[in-house]
Amino acid sequence: MTVRASPPLSTPRHRAAWRRGLTALALVLLIGTPALAQDARTLGMGGVVVAGPGAAGVNPAFAAVPGRGGTSLTLPLGALSAVTRDYWDPYSAGFDALSTLDQASALGLYLLDPAASPDRVIVGVDGNGLSVTFEGGATMRLTDPTSFDGGFELPVGGAVGPVRIGVRPFLTLHARFTPGADARQVFTSASASASAKLVADAEAGVALDVGTALPLPVPSAALGGGRLFVGVRASGVAGLAKVAADLQGQVTAEQDSSGAYTGNVLYSYDGTLSQGGLLTGSVGYGGMAAFGIAATVPSEIGTVTMGAGVRHLGVMIWNLQQTRVQADQNSSSHTDLGTVRQVDWAEHANVGVNLAVEVPSANLGVPGMGLLVAADGSVDLSGGFATHAGTELQFGPFAVRAGAGYQDGLRLGLGAGVRTGPVGLDVALTSHRSPFTDHQAFGVAASLAFGF
Amino acid sequence: MTILPARPLRFLALGTALTLVLAGCSRHTALRVYADLVPFLGTASTQATVSYGAGTTTLDLPPDSSQPKAGALVDLAGLGVPPDAIQNVDELGLDLAVAVRPDSAIDAGSATLYIAPSNETDIFQAPYAAGQVTVPALPASQASTVTGSFRLDAQQQPAALARVQSGSFRVGVELQASATTGGQAQIDLQQLVVSVSLPPGWGLP
User: Fold this and answer.
1) Measured between CA atoms, how close is B25 to chain A, in angstroms?
2) Is position B23 within any domain?
3) Residue B22 is nearest to which of A2, A97, A122, comparing CB atoms?
4) Which of A191, A265, A311, A394 would bridge with A182, disulfide CB 3.0–4.6 Å?
């Protein structure tokens, strides 16, 4: 066997540059993870949103609901992996792209068993179609629609009377790859073509958030002694950068009049590539709004808190430079479409409901013990769906938690916490489905809680 | 006969390659790509009736009346194998299955694999021989399936492997046997699988 000498990319200079990049990444993660990640209390309950002031980002009305508030700071355990694990480093023997993606998508977790690339990939083309087989490692999901949603935001703000004001730099990433139903049948008698669609966008900007929540003057008797709250939050958004792609492609095995394959494969793709914001000397702008309603109702077993809210409702306007890209097996073209004014209406609008029941120690019959049971569900315009349920058992300053949910796959959580004075520590063991695979990864998270 | 032109299957491979970006870009991931070329050939290139004489006779595969000695042109780039990765080919395999129905009985013989440069018009020459397997006797007037598996070894066939590493090469198999009387044989190529195995880290510098 002939083995070629290492190409120039693996020079010490490039390795050093890569490691400097890793260090920078670790710093970014250290700064950004606390703002991005779900806290360990939530993860320990399977990802459930607990109705209360701590969930005002989900439902603005929760800001006025009596209950646990304060600030939670998730420790950036995921960033540690950039130092302790070598799957991040493409020049190390342990480099693993799937593990890197898995860990990068769960920055607040230190993944114990991130998805691993397969030991062997077998790609075959024959009369029965195209087959891809994986041996070892995680099983890739090839023919299911696959989406990736990520984000990064760093909210800074405070309350001025009943009004909360904040500034929130953000970066969002959304991508969805949708293979056609014919994708797995290519080259068989069932189908001679395979199609797929890719839609992806990334946006960066700064939002100015102003919100308030207050109790409504509803007669207490009307709610069985309970209270009703409403909340609203408005955001002015300056869009600093946006890049987007919307592509549709198809591959077809050419057949002659008798149905026999000629050996030629025809392909085509068509779509647009867009960029805007400071990339093209402009700024996007828009506004977002969130509305919510919540109620607390006493019952025989405890206090029931319910809420419903809608968020990410609004519009962003961009002046985008667009290019239409088209190609087939005979030709390709890039056509400058000029600057196009694009209005994105409520692209990622989300509706959610929450329910929580807090059972006091008196009802449990055990002094110092409390029980919280919570559930939530949400849908968004892009078709995403999530639901979670979890419970927390408190005894004195300690708490243990468990929960499960569905959010891009099964989620499981176990957790514990301790509170002392104004400071608390929460830890969680959680499980999620790794991106693009069927792998169920486990990770640990830790959060510090202040002022609850 | 060109059965894997560079442009066509390259885009079949594109989707696969994109999928493999995540799966394959790891130091421990090995890759095996195989393609059965028969579905991509017309029946004119997979089925033929050839004459053979008494004594030692040869049948060249794949059968192609327009270029009977040229074999099949294989373009690895068209199969989605990265050019750099070809230099690290771990193993090249060829598995074939062909149904042969001779008029008269043919004694046991051999099948020889030939790998030649892409510009060669007669690949069935001794310098291009890259492996040999035995072929059982073929009864008269009855279709028998002849199978053969060839594996290129860097130690035993360095020249053949170098031609593979060029990325484009011609491949063919010659059946050789003896018959008491001559006649015609119907040949139906049922499987012609070319496989390339790449070692772990194939996609990375």
Assistant:
1) 6
2) yes
3) A97
4) A191
- Phi-psi category of B6—alpha, beta or left, where left has phi over 0 and alpha has psi -120 to 50? alpha
Point out the residue among B28, B35, B87 whose CB comes nearest to the CB of A2.
Answer: B87
Residue % of chain A over a pLDDT of 90? 32
Residue B185 counted as domain residue? yes
- pLDDT (tens digit per residue) in A88-104: 887 788 888 889 888 88
CA A306 to chain centre: 24
- Alpha-carbon torsion angle A335, A337, A339, A341, nearest 10: -140
Mean pLDDT for A181-203 is 70
Q: Rounded to a whole number, what is the distance in Å from the CA of A132 to chain B's nearest CA?
A: 8
Minimal Cβ distance to B11: which of A92, A126, A267? A267
pTM: 0.70
Report the CATH number that the domain containing residue B61 is assigned in CATH.
2.60.120
Range of the domain at B174: 6-198
Residue of A217, A164, A168 whose CA lies nearest to A56:
A164
Question: Is the residue at B176 inside a domain?
Answer: yes
Predicted pLDDT of residue B83: 63
pLDDT interval class at B14 (50, 70, 90): very low
Residue at B205 is within a domain: no
Number of domains in chain B: 1
**Strand A163-179 to A193-216 pairing:** antiparallel
Tokens of A257: 């009049």
Q: What is the pLDDT of residues A319-375, one digit of tens each?
A: 999 989 888 877 888 888 999 999 988 777 899 999 999 999 888 888 889 999 999
